[in-house]
Amino acid sequence: MNVVVLVGRLTRDPELKFGQSGKAYSRFSLAVDRPFSKGEADFINCVAFGKTAELIGEYLRKGRKVGVNGRLQMNRFEMNGEKRTSYDVLVEAIEFLESKGSGDSMGGYEPEYSSPTPKSSAKEVEEIPYEDDDEFPF
């Protein structure tokens, strides 16, 4: 299972571009606080495609707080004759965790000391009734 869930702030304005096929993609980086480490963060590269990328490019700016759901992808490439590896989170869903104006005054990333959880967008799971049955099926 390859599942990534992140809450963090954009470290720069997202880059919105269009591929040769005309499909939109957006690259951005998130600063995600490390648990139990005051002021330390990991900087995670993310990429989104299609309508999600267009919304990110239109509405998000540096310093804005978001929740991201996606999957990790490893990229291998060669640069100046050296083999390199990089990792990106492919964004499958994104949630804006602040109103439009509240992140604008941030001026960039400011570390937080608690790790908030994003609102769940998952549907409620149907409860399976428990039957008290002392008999074994064999």
UniProtKB/TrEMBL annotation:
Statement: the UniProt record of this protein carries the keyword DNA-binding: yes
Compositional bias ranges of the Acidic residues kind: 127-138
Gene3D superfamilies: Nucleic acid-binding proteins (2.40.50.140)
Tagged with keyword DNA-binding: yes
Pfam families, A to Z: SSB
Alphabetical UniProt keywords: DNA-binding
GO molecular function annotations of the record: DNA binding
Location of the region described as Disordered in the Swiss-Prot/TrEMBL record: 100-138
Subunit structure as annotated in this protein's UniProt entry: Homotetramer.
HAMAP family linked: SSB (MF_00984)
Record-given protein name: Single-stranded DNA-binding protein
Species annotation: Fusobacterium mortiferum ATCC 9817
